[in-house]
Records
---
Amino acid sequence: MSRSVPSDAEARRAIAPVICYPTETLPQPDLGLYRAARAGARRIAETLVPPRDARAFSVPAGHFFRITSVEGPQVGDLNLWAADDLAERFYSGKTRALHGTHLSTGDRLWSAFPHLRPMATIVDDTLDWYGIDSFGGGVHDVIGTRCDPYTGNLLSGSQYHHCCHSNLTRALADHLGLTLAEAEPHVHDVLNVFMCTGFTRDTGQYFMKASPVRPGDHLEFFAEIDLLGALSACPGGDCSAEHSSDTSACHPLLVEVFAPDPVALSGWAPPAPNGYDRSHGR
């Protein structure tokens, strides 16, 4: 059905936007403290995530973990949970609302309601130079969900099992001794590590393009609480063509955990859960 354009259409479009969540009062991380603690930290664990698969790992509060590209351009899908409560998990939507569509140094990964507290803080990003390109693309997004077998089946009738959703499900199940049916509801929207994405200017569609990541690039976090993580090395490789594929060139990702000298974090404590009283007006 055709519809006439209102006479004040341009005036309506020209109304200035308002930032939904001004962050001037958002608690800020003490990056100076974290960096000083990191300088003397020692590596205590590492996990190599195979191509087209996922692995789980643990990070105690007050420790650091680093995700590194080790052989070739590769993106990863990251899930985080509170180590003692899978219901407290990374909330990509609220993280996006607070920090924007793509994350970098100083941004934090926030947990789901009713906790809504920092789970991890990004302390180092070797791709922070990328910014936003001429297509509107950026790196480390919190807008995409994760490649999954359900959308693949919906769009093409496929039964593809090594997409990130299934990889994360298997990794969590294996790590905790759960069945796949028990683990799957805990898998959630991700931080797309190293992935370069955006929205097209004309149709508003989510796009991906070849990641700028190269071997040696890394993204490093400070664990604000005890964490259980799972990382999938996406079957799309650098996501320059497909994100669920047995033909894309894929590479492993390395997760390393570093323990600082406890004295270096003197005065620091894990953040408390959100202070809202949960009365909801009753």
---
Amino acid sequence: MKKIFCVLSLMLVTLAFVSCSKNSPEGVIENYVSCVKSDKYEDLLDICYFKKDLTDEEKAQYAAFLRDKMGPELKKKGGISDLEITKVDMAEDGESAKVSYSLTYGDGSIKATTDKVVCIDGRWKLNTGK
């Protein structure tokens, strides 16, 4: 009986993680904003698509660059207080999309932007164009 309970519990936990997955065009933007808000630029790079894989050194350099560029700007604006996805334009092939969204900052300012995302090997990623 204990074994059955353990197996069922494990299956439920696995199902919960899978159902909460943010593997969608909107989810990539949500993950991006979450990484920026929590100063996790290395994790941010994991959800970005680059034409060639980054070495550990390149990844560290990109993360430092993003931290130096975005960190002070975010601090000056009071951080990100809200994200609103306003539109998703999916390509006909279903392998790319343009996601329009608005970021509201702690100082009340709002920035509307659009980013391209691509589906690579079944995972949605932010397209860096690099």
---
Amino acid sequence: MKRILLIAGLTSLVFTGCSQMTVLRTQEMKAVGSEVEMRLDSVAAQLAQQNDSLRAELDSTKALLEASSLAQKRMQAEITMLSRRVSDESERNDSRQEEIIYRLDMLLGKSDKILAKKVVVSGAPAPVSMDSLEREAEKLVEAEAMFNTARSDYHRGEFKLAYSGFKQVYEQMKQGELAENSLYWMALCLIDVNQVDKAKKVFARMSEAFPDGAKTCPALFKLANLYGEDCDIDMQKQYLQKILSTKSCEKSAEFEQAAEMLQEILEKEDKKAAGEPVDACVPVVREAAPAPAPTPAPVSDAAAPAPQAPAAP
């Protein structure tokens, strides 16, 4: 009986101790759980703060990238503009260099002619005075400057202004290479303002006044083309044959082109005569001219050509 009571007491004591230990373990686990939750909350708060910081950095980086992209686009636009300016300036410099070289060539050629002139006094030749040489040189330089300005106006599309400049040069020089070139460019201006009939007359008179000039062959070839555009085949052949019969044109580019063009016309005429089908010529339709312009007067002296220049278109 005592053993039973002892066992019962021990059992009760064991159960009581286990119960107390369970309570302690439960409290410990709750404390640990609370501590874990606190740590998790702290970590979550830190992560949220880091996330906000990262988002702020990403937004800042995105803004920087956008600003950088915009700045890059602006730089590309500026580089493009600068490249165009450099290209334009290069073209201007090339044009200026060409004009300077042309002017120097003209001066060198004209200076030799001026220095070679003699004035006959009392039947004996005498050297030209320095004042006369200076005046001739000044006149030449002034005419060349006007010619270069007119040529620049022409390339800018200011055909009427260019025409007036070339006309002024021609009226000042009357003879020589500058006068011939001025008439040639005057005719080009007339073509560009659709006064083709006037241009034809200027080209024709120019080729008569300067038969051995540097612009004679190009002028004759342009005449052939203009008459061809009007389907005036007889006049076209006439000017093509004139190119082929002009000795100064034999080594020009216009000589070979004229030969080929004339051959094509003759072959077409042979086919037509044989009854073979050929393409009909269709005249070029041009717009009405803005204003009429008189043509140069006929050359009265072949030894000293001085055709009258047409009025400004």
---
Amino acid sequence: MTKGRRTDFVPRGVQPQQQAGGGQAGMMAKLQQMQDEMKKTQEALETELVNVTAAGGAINMVITGHQRLQSIKIDPALVDPNDIAMLEDSLVAAVNNAILASQEHAAKRLESVTGGISIPGLT
């Protein structure tokens, strides 16, 4: 027996495919799988709907996971012809809230795919 490093040593908890050499192919397969799941999730977000209420429930909006507004319902009591500015401000706030809710929904869905790994440009 010659002195030197053992070539057959595997630390506890490390699977053989995690070792140098064969591990790279396993990592590439995992990345490809993550990419496929990411694509499916992005496609699903296009049709997933988020319901948002604002102005004390007087405004209801539905927005997709791709930040596409689907509908706006306004309680007629909120419409005051003498105070259009208040309605406009309420709509701006409601739309901003809907976009934020949609972005948070998309981030949660994508985080479930990436396992919390931050990948710039995906959300």
